[in-house]
Specification:
6 helices, DUF742 domain-containing protein, single chain, 121 residues, mainly alpha, three-stranded antiparallel β-sheet, 45% helix
């Protein structure tokens, strides 16, 4: 990387980073939160990308989309890498909860206040 944070030297194709795989071991939502586990903090994993992701998610929990953006990787590549890391126990992935019909977990009052605030923008 140069002084501006731009990559220098040879660029690696995204499919090379994932060893040609395009499908993750497990499906991870775009907004799923990723956190480095103790095993990930102890330097487990293979490849530089795993170490970088572990470092990013050790400082604070981040979404899959944030990790992809910070690494300047396509979302699919980041999803494959993070799924691999989750399978190896290097990161914990927290999927967003879904609001099922009849389940008022979030509360209609809160949703109405959010909608009202959005309308004022």
């Amino acid at each position: 990387m140069d002084d501006r944070g731009e990559p220098t030297g040879a660029l690696v194709r995204p499919y090379a980073v994932t060893r040609g795989r395009t499908r993750p071991r497990l499906e991870i939502a775009l907004e799923a939160l990723v956190e480095t586990t103790q095993r990930g903090r102890n330097g487990g994993g293979r490849g530089g990308e795993h170490r970088v992701i572990a470092g990013l998610c050790e400082e604070r929990v981040q979404s899959l989309a944030e990790v992809a953006a910070q690494l300047r990787l396509p979302l699919g590549v980041a999803r494959v890498l993070i799924a691999d890391m989750a399978a190896e126990g290097l990161v914990a992935v927290y999927e967003p909860t879904s609001i099922e019909e009849g389940n008022d977990a979030v509360g209609t009052e809160l949703l109405e206040r959010v909608l009202s605030g959005l309308r004022r923008l």
